[in-house]
Amino acid sequence: MNTACGTSRIVGCQFTLLPMSDDFVDIILSTLNTVNTSKVWKDTDDVSTCIRGKMVHVFDVTKAIFLHAAKTGKHVAMSGTFSIGCPGDSSGDVYMDETDDALNEELASSIHQQAGCKFALYPMGREDYMDTIYEQIDLSKSRGVTVSHSHYATRLDGDAHDIFQALQEAFENVQTTVSHVTMTFMISANSPSTK
């Protein structure tokens, strides 16, 4: 088995969408049907959905799925992991030839949703990983979101567009200097706990 960090620039995101509602099946299925996923490889099973492709499209699809589910007004959460440079990650290269036009941005841009998110960044194989993480936390403070500390994570609060932009920029910045990076996140909207 190959255990060296990969050189492929395929980005993947494995996530679970969690609508807290009796009609959760309808919310999940209608959301997955509404969002254009034609520029990513996608597989959904009974536990999660995995999407893979160029960074711009993986973040575009992930954000759009969360926003379309949250616009129902129901309490919705999404938990997932972004990854790049994973050992052995080479299939699905066909999606790397896509243009950089984000297919969901126009429709998603009309959805304004306040959200809370916790994320943790993991630059693999770096002894100075904490410096790398702190640098991205500091940069997040200028990205239109409120940044606060949490156990084992950093919390971001604000508009979901700004949150996903902060996540993407942090991930993108680190992957330019570290071959294998993962980033976990949990984002929530319409929670009764915030009322």
Q: What does this entry show, briefly?
A:
With 195 residues, this protein is an alpha+beta fold. It has 5 helices and 8 strands, in the order E-H-E-E-H-E-H-E-H-E-E-H-E.
Protein architecture, described:
The chain has 195 residues and is an alpha+beta fold. It has a single domain (11-85, 112-194), classed as Alpha-Beta Plaits (2-Layer Sandwich). Helix content is 30%, strand content 30%. The chain has helices at residues 24-34, 55-70, 105-108, 129-140, 160-175; strands at residues 11-19, 41-44, 49-53, 76-84, 114-123, 146-150, 153-159, 181-189. It has an eight-stranded antiparallel β-sheet with strand order 2-3-1-4-8-5-7-6. It starts with 10 loop residues before the first strand and ends in a 6-residue tail after the last strand. The mean pLDDT is 87.
CATH topology: Alpha-Beta Plaits
The assembly state of the depicted protein chains is: single chain
Kindly state the percentage of residues in helix.
25-40%
Major sheet summary line? 8 strands, antiparallel
Q: Kindly, what is the distance between the CA atoms of the first and last residues, rounded to a whole number of angstroms?
A: 50 Å
**Which series of helices and strands comes N to C?**
EHEEHEHEHEEHE
In percent, how much strand structure appears in the residues? 25-35%
Number of domains: 1
Q: How large, in whole angstroms, is the Cα Rg? A: 16 Å
The residue ranges in which pLDDT falls below 50 over 5 or more consecutive positions are none
Main CATH class: Alpha Beta
Number of helices: 5
The whole-number mean of residue pLDDT values reads: 87
Structural shape:
globular
Secondary-structure content class: alpha+beta
**Strands of the biggest beta sheet: in what spatial order?**
2-3-1-4-8-5-7-6
The CATH architecture designation is 2-Layer Sandwich
